[in-house]
Structure formats: C-alpha cells, structure tokens
What does this fold into?
Amino acid sequence: MDNFRAGDTFTFEFYNGTYSSADYDMWIAIRGNKVTPIDIQPTTPPIAGITFERQGNGWKVTVADSITKDWEAGDYDYAVIATATGEKHTMETGTVTILPDISAYDDEVDNRSMVKQTLDAVEAAILARASGTVLRKTVNGITFEYLTYTELLMLRDKYTALYSQEERQRKIDSGIPADNKIRVRF
It folds into this structure.
C-alpha cells in the first residue's frame, strides 16, 4: 500500500505463503497520529460495504466508497494481521498515505503549497511597488510591508528556487523525469 484516496473503493489483495487463508482470518489495522483508528476486519454479521474473500492462499478485501469517504487524509502506519484461534501473526507492516476526497470539496480550495502562495504574494507586492502603491499582505503568517524593491526581488528569487525544487520533486514522484541536465555544445 502506498497511496489511497478517501472516497474511492479500497481493494487490497494479499498473499502469504506462511499463513494460508484456509486456516487464518486476516484483518488490516490502520493507525495515524491523533486520528480515529481504522480496522478492516471480518465481523459477524458482516458490515455493509466491507467484503472479505478467500482467494487460494490469500485474501481480497474490498471497502466501499461509502465507508472510505469518512477516512481522514494523512499518513498512517498499517499492519496486515493473520488470526486463528489463540494466534495472531503480523504478516506485513508499512505506511500508507490517505489522500483527501477531492470530489467532496464544497468550497474553493487553495491547494497551492505554502512556498507557491508566498511566491505569488511576493510577485503581487513587486507589481504593487512598480505601480507606486504600498502593499501590505499576510500569507501564512508572513506579512510583507514597506519592503524595498531589492528586498522583494531577493525574496522572489529565493521562493522561485524553492518552488522549482517542489515542482521537480512532484515530477519525480509522478514518474516524470526531471529535466536537470546541463547541456554543453562543443
């Protein structure tokens, strides 16, 4: 598990050679910092929207979007656990990021990073100074007030570099090669 978006159907297939689905039940424990624990486990009677299927030596778990829509976005630790009468075995652990359900946003959402918001504010301040007006603007607790043109340009250069780093990392994380080659002509 790497990423999962709240509000989507969650499907997880797990196979383990040591703990067969014929002899063990499986459940998934998901825990995060200061958020409600998530336990995905078979119950009697079954919970509507959660299915467990035994497939060969493994399991397939499906959780309906009507349940995952309430999962809070954030980084979580998870454990896949096999249980039988009097036994409990952790088969796998790791981390998973639950992403927010974008389709559930009611209001306009500013999903720009703090670096991008600050860069935009600095550029707005530069434009205001160029037109002869004095600008006072607060973004994420940073107030820009009566800065010299030189100070604004220095801030713009700093935040442009930081934003370029963010964009390069976003591309790498998305599998897009970063264009950080230095080309030389002879």
